[in-house]
Amino acid sequence: MNNDNEHKEGQEKISKEKSLNTSINYRQVFDDISSKYTSRRRITNKVVSIVAIVFVIGAIIPLGSILLEVIKNGIAVISIQFLTQPPGSIGSGSGGIGPAIQGTLITVGLASLIGAPIGILSGIYLSEYAPAGSAKGGRERAISFFANTIRLFNDVLTGLPSIVIGIVGYVTIVLAINSFSVWAGAFALSIIMIPIISRVTEETLKLVPNSLREAGYSLGISKSKITLFIVLKNAKDGVLTGVILAISRIAGETAPLIMTILGTSLFFTSLTGPVDALPLRIWRLASQPYESAHAFGWGAALVLILMILILSASLRIIARGRGIKVRTETI
Amino acid sequence: MSKIVMNSVVIVVMTSLLLTGVVTMSMSQRSFAQLLPKQMQTPGQSNINGAGATFPFPLIDTWRVEYQKVKPYVNINYQSIGSGGGVKQFTAKTVDFGASDAPLSAAERAKATGAVHIPETIGSVVAAYNIPGIPDKGLKLTGPILADIFAGKIKKWNDPRIQSLNPDKKLPAADIVTVHRSDGSGTTFVWTSYLSNASPQWNQTIGASKSVQWPSGVGAPGNEGVANAIKGSPNTIGYIELNYALQTKTPYAFIQNKAGKFIEPTLESVKQAAADVSAKGLPKGDASWQKVTLLNDKGSGAYPIASFSYLLLPKDLGKSPNMNEAKAKALVDFISWAITDGQKFASKLGYVPLPDPVVKLDQDTIKSLTFNGKPI
User: Residue A82 contacts by C-beta under 8 Å, 6 or more apart in sequence?
Assistant: First the structure.
């Protein structure tokens, strides 16, 4: 640890000296250039900076205004009753969105249980067991071809409209068991999750320095152990980000749920029955002609945003807490 | 050997790692379950799922809440996905009952064998508009004019044919934008049936169906979608159920009836349209209802565009994959309640309570329902 620090400090010193030298050189060059050019460069620099800042603000404005609008319109209806009760008759303004909150948690939870392991395992396979690039041998070539095909289909799957995935869920599960069901919804959502998680996992694992793997091999550790305890451990944050990204994405999906879970005004009864979900409820409420339904829709939107926010924040905190613990143990 | 063990350990450990991500959710689920009302815990309860027409949705949704007070252990779930979707899901047996404003066609009856129609309410379709400068209801229109507007033949609001009917109103020289349903819709069926009656040319070229080839205009999903589209853009006209026009405070036209009078769609005028319904010779519940119509009643005060809305049930409830005897009993009880006691909620929402002969007919139909051959 100490050695490391000293080494770093030394390197920093060297690089500082280097940059000092170069900056002096540049200053001399600048002095040589006529003041006209210098001022022109300065102006260009200022203008481009300002343009960049304007665009950054422009990118933030929609996000900020959406959040503000949702909070402004949604905060009024939020209450314990709104969060826990089933909806009252349409237009009455009574009841709440309890079934939708519960349904989202169940459907997204089940989808994650299906999608996350498959996504992560396929990401590990693509990164660790079937590296890209041209291989000479027959078997390796076949593996490489297989992996590239998977990557291609993963990308295609990412771009597939989610309503199409919903129809797949309808045809394969709803029609098969003759009921709109949580299973069908979770199945459709997990198909959306898998390519996202797989891609992110693969890219993150590739970022783990090869020297770490080699260090493991040199100690005679088996590949599976290296993958699990060295590579995956180092890439944990990235993998988790992928999972959170995928969960946030599916938690807001409406299209695949229309054809699979139908929606209901009742609380969860069984995995083979219809269930409600927040995005679906927001969509249905927004299309009602009643003011009270619109107010409920805004409230539901706020709840959905908060839920995703809390979920990703808490997952990150859990991950960070564990990461620190692991490091102290190893030292 | 150790490799295999390790590999399986890898899988197990990783899955459990992922599980922790979901733990937060399942925890909140568990605490949720404790918060829940008795709904979830009491055994012997029945959950009945239905889907279909948007036209009677406000009424059926009120029934859902009110019936819970009558029988707390029966939970009704009705989702308004449109009559087209209702018939489709009913045929695919993914729901316990369907709802449609259009009776099943011969082709649909062939696919959904043993389906019965139970008219559960009567409503009306109005021509709602958004014309700048005319904020009030009461633009006078006739069937042939409406047919020409929706066929794209009358293009401007100040067309002489419209203006001459409304000498007291100053119509703008703007283009008419028609709004129609984009989904399969019973309301569309009622509307196009009316236009087909009013205009032979419409009948030949476009006809009456749950979804037709519209020559012009924009589409919107659901009664609520059309209502919002009309409200949101000027110079539009579209057709929606009366209740949706009242809720969105969209003005609607007074339409000329068979007696030649311009009639405002109200509870009273729609009731009159259904007054002599028993004289129309209604078929039995399990027969074809395709010919049944409440359009163009000859009563002098009758609004010309009224319609039944139907609940669809299989004649033998045992044929439904998600049915058991207790649930079938609960479903039948609910519908018996809806067509009798439930009718008292109709007027407040702008629907006409069923006339007595129709209630009698419905009760006969319900009596004829069976569960695996046994009467319920």
Answer: A96, A97, A296, A299
Q: What pLDDT digit, counting tens, does each position of A223-243 carry?
A: 999 999 999 988 988 898 899
Cβ under 8 Å to B: A residues 265-324: 265-269, 273-274, 284, 287-290, 311, 314-315, 318
Using a CB-CB cut-off of 8 Å, the residues of chain A touching B29 are 102, 105-106, 109
Instruction: Provide, as residue numbers in chain B, all residues whose Cβ is less than 8 Å from the Cβ of A128.
Output: none
Find the residue in A nearest to B54 (Cα). A288
CA distance A160 to A233: 32
- Kind and range of the H or E element at B255? strand B254-256
Cross-strand partners of B263: B255
Q: First CA to last CA across chain A, in angstroms?
A: 9
Smallest CA–CA separation between B267 and chain A, in Å?
19
DSSP A117-152: HHHHHHHHIIIIIS--S---SHHHHHHHHHHHHHHH
d(Cα A261, Cα B337) in Å, to the nearest integer?
28
Residue A66 CA to chain centroid, in angstroms?
A: 20
The percentage of chain A sitting over the pLDDT mark of 70, rounded to a whole number, equals 83
**B26: which chain A residues are within 8 Å (Cβ-Cβ)?**
109
Whose CA is closest to B309, among B190, B225, B213?
B190
Judged by CB atoms closer than 8 Å, whether chains meet at B21 and A121 is answered as no
Contact assessment for residue B71 and residue B333, using Cβ atoms and an 8 Å cutoff: yes
Minimal C-alpha gap between A44 and chain B (Å):
46
Contact A225 B6 (CB under 8 A): yes
- Smallest CA–CA distance, residue A92 to chain B, in Å, is 9
A135, pLDDT greater than 70: no
Q: Which residues of chain A are within 8 Å of residue B222 when distances are taken between CB atoms?
A: 287
Collect all residues of chain A within an 8 Å Cβ-Cβ radius of residue B81.
262
* pLDDT tens sequence across B144-173: 999 999 999 999 999 999 999 999 998 999
Please name which of B22, B68, B78, B79 lies closest in space to residue B42, comparing C-alpha atoms.
B68
Provide the angle, in degrees to the nearest 10, between the axes of the packed helices A291-330 and B2-35.
140
Over residues A264-305, the pLDDT tens digits come to 999 998 888 999 999 999 998 988 888 899 999 999 999 999
What does the block give as tokens for A22? Answer: 């170069």
- pLDDT grade, residue B4 (50/70/90)? low
Contacting residues of A for B95, CB less than 8 Å apart: 180, 262
Q: Using CB atoms, pick whichever of B77, B228, B247 lies closest to residue A91.
A: B247
Note the pTM of the prediction, 2 decimals.
Answer: 0.80
- Residue-wise pLDDT for A38-63, tens only, equals 688 889 999 999 999 999 999 999 98
Closest among B183, B182, B178 to B195, alpha carbons compared: B178
Q: Which residue is listed with tokens 């669809």? A: B312
Q: Per-residue pLDDT for A142 more than 70?
A: yes
